[in-house]
Amino acid sequence: MAGRRAASLTFGWAVGYGGFGVACALTGTPVFAGGGHRAPASVDWAVVAFALLTAGAALAARQGPRPVVRGLLWALCGLSVVSAFGLLMSLITLVFGEGVDSRAATANQALAAVGTVLLARAARTLRSPVARDVAVRREPVPASRPIRLTAWAGTLAFAPYAAMKTVWALDGTFAGTNGAEMRAIAERNGASGLWLTLESWGLDGTALLAALGVFLLFGLVRPWGQVFPRWIPFLGGRRVPPALPLVPAVIGAATLAPYGTAGICYAVLGTAGVVTVPRGDFHSSSDALLVAWVGLAAFAVYGAALIVAARSYWQRTR
């Protein structure tokens, strides 16, 4: 029953996603964009093809468990993760900046993130009747010790990043740039009023987001992340729907892990002198490289820890 419901939800999403792709393709609105570049609108038909294939797989999943269909759903889930790449950065830009460069691209990322969760759920619930019969409701338990240590690694990776941002927010100097200069740069680059207000209070928006990310990470590996707190009216003690923490986990992991990993590779080449790192808004290339190392290392390690923690959470709550 759960498998048919998950397949039906995935089918409904595929129909909506396909309609979105058709509308964008017919109006000439590119849905794939990144780094200031946009793919031709004709590439939007790839969204339609993906949606049709997903709809077909979802219909096949309703007929019963088959390894081939289950494998296809996982493959489509992986492609959906790729399409969702950059959603976290888009959301941060939407809140703290002037706005996203492309609303269609951001909408595509958001829809892909939802599809990732639905496809994964459909694939996981597509088990044999025997497996469904013996499934039991598990009590909240912590993740294994290695996974909890991974969560600590992801947390500690953010410490230098949060410290750097806090130094600037408190008018200190790091990498040759002081807080006043950073605020001027942010304002020149179109920072929102919310961002500038937080900075005037000595708070950095991305440091606050890092704190929320750490909260999410530990919620995925500790028992309290599986139940609502007692102090929440009408919900205290009830189970947290797995999608509630897993959706932001997927969004974060799909953006930060590949972004940080690719960035570290670039930073290594820059440190070795193979490529020249542009100084950007900083006083020198070495300053820009130092800031890049601090930020990209945090993103890469935290993103990897989020993947491990989310997988553990899924297994412990299925």
TrEMBL record:
Keyword Membrane attached: yes
Transmembrane segments: 43-61, 73-97, 205-225, 246-269, 289-310
Keyword Metal-binding set for record: no
Record's keyword terms, sorted: Membrane, Transmembrane, Transmembrane helix
Protein name as catalogued: Integral membrane protein
